[in-house]
Amino acid sequence: MGLSWMAWTAPTAAFFICIVLAISLMGFLEWRNPGGEPRRGILTLDTTRGDRLFISILGSAFIHLGWLGLMGTPLWGAVIISVVYTYCVFRWV
Amino acid sequence: MNKKISNQKAWWFVAPVIVLVAFNAVIPLMTVVNYSVQETFGNNVFFWEGVKWFETVLNSERFHASLGRQMMFTSIILLIEVPLGVAIALTMPKKGVWVSVCLVFMAMPLLIPWNVVGAMWNIFALPDIGLLGRAINALGIDYNFTSQPLSAWFTTILMDVWHWTSLVVLLAYAGLSSIPDAYYQAAKIDGAKPWAVFRYIQLPKMKRVLTIAILLRFMDSFMIYTEPFVLTGGGPGNTTTFLSIDLVKIALGQFDLGPAAAMSLVYFLIVLLVSWLFYTLMMKDEAQ
Question: CATH no. for residue B125?
């Protein structure tokens, strides 16, 4: 039995590969440069690097949905906002 | 820097769970993501559609309406079940033979399969032959859940409260039983009123289990399908068509797999966000 029932497409495969790479990068960073202890940021939450990755991905998903619902396609604006948002989350949250 | 003992072998114990989760959650979720950007007419033939279905869902009045109904339903049952569950747990006996009797009676509704609960309440609430329906009509109140939206909502909420309050009761009771007697004795010495005992001893000690209870009830009620489907079938009209019922109508009734997949992803993200927010806020208070 092949994987045809999963209906893979190149963009969705790239999307999941990016997620896996992001998680692997986190693991690699933690191995090379341990320091993933919880830290208290501007939201007064104790977050580890993994938490910040989760907040970034979940937030980016909502940024994209919000952009799509309010502005429609193309999504470049949402991508830019998400990148800035992710940077801010990793820097200050 | 303190040197930690490096032994990563324990990770192998997590391996079975990871394999299980991969098969029952990750692979299906990936498939849903793949479906959400394509159109299909069956036979495993797919056409690329990009984010069109997400746009359709986000701007669909039908989705907004069922999301609104779903949020209202979840809020109402949480507002009823959590205080009611805590109140019942407080009145339950602390020791003796009645503890087991109460616990068994409390657990009973939880053991009944969901479709049976729906069928039971359907018959129970029928206005012509059901005990509840006949009784309410005998009181002079015009009640018919098959044709009146308000009656349908009332019955659905009553059914959910009947089915799931026990879960809150059992969890709250577990939290209460873990409070050592010394706390109550100290409160007695200080002359604390029952409300003060509840507010400053019982409630803080129940916080963790109540967090779990609210999370479980939120997720379960947000994904509710079987009971309202059997009870009202989403009707009358669309008045009790909650998100899952609507999703199944789109996916299986209309065979619109793409829009249904996009809708389930939006649905999944909402559940994820609310659960994460709720858990984080509760745990933040705990840490302080």
Answer: 1.10.3720.10
